[in-house]
Write a structure and sequence with these properties.
192 residues; mainly alpha
């Protein structure tokens, strides 16, 4: 098992600000690589994916794969809606509220049924997917881009699971991390 110091450094690096390549037209990457980079260019996406992993880690067992899978499947459906430019209101509000809800669920360790947790995670995943899909330029191969952002999403969720499992016996971490994620969500919602 890796040391606690390792996981603290991993969390710090994951949450460190990245250069603002966030929205598609910046840089010289295409397709798969561009899709891989997109989720790590916005703090909202990074925190949501990590917190989904943290939520899965609090439940253990089947939740370790069901919660991330619920996010990935519904995010992919949302991405398809975004690529087709379907009219979906309040996408940015949904993304901001996902942070508020995910953070609060993690901080309080509210015991939802696994099916309810998957439903909550899945509902908010639709908004994250829509945002990714709506930003795919017409000139970019959509399937390669989609595979890239799904892979990065999965990797961020796995990182969240690893961090959550390694710090499972630290309720102060859960409270502080969940609270901070919720605060970021509130700030983003107020900035809309």
């Amino acid at each position: 098992m890796l040391s606690k110091r390792y996981w603290l450094w991993a969390a710090a690096l994951a949450l460190a600000p990245a250069p603002a390549f966030a929205h598609i037209s910046v840089g010289h990457v295409t397709g798969f690589l561009h899709g891989m980079l997109h989720p790590i260019t916005g703090i909202d996406h990074i925190l949501a994916m990590l917190t989904v992993g943290l939520l899965a880690s609090t439940r253990g067992g089947r939740a370790l794969w069901l919660v991330p899978a619920a996010f990935l499947v519904t995010m992919t459906i949302g991405a398809a809606a975004g690529v087709m430019h379907m009219a979906v209101p309040y996408v940015e509000t949904g993304i901001a509220l996902s942070l508020v809800v995910f953070g609060a669920l993690y901080a309080t360790r509210l015991k939802l049924a696994l099916s309810a947790l998957c439903a909550v995670v899945g509902c908010f995943a639709f908004f994250h997917g829509y945002a990714h899909g709506a930003e795919v330029p017409a000139s970019m191969p959509g399937l390669a881009y989609g595979a890239g952002f799904v892979l990065t999403t999965l990797l961020l969720q796995i990182a969240g699971i690893a961090i959550g499992l390694s710090l499972r016996d630290r309720p102060i971490f859960r409270f502080v991390a969940g609270g901070l994620v919720s605060v970021v969500g509130v700030v983003l919602a107020l900035a809309l």
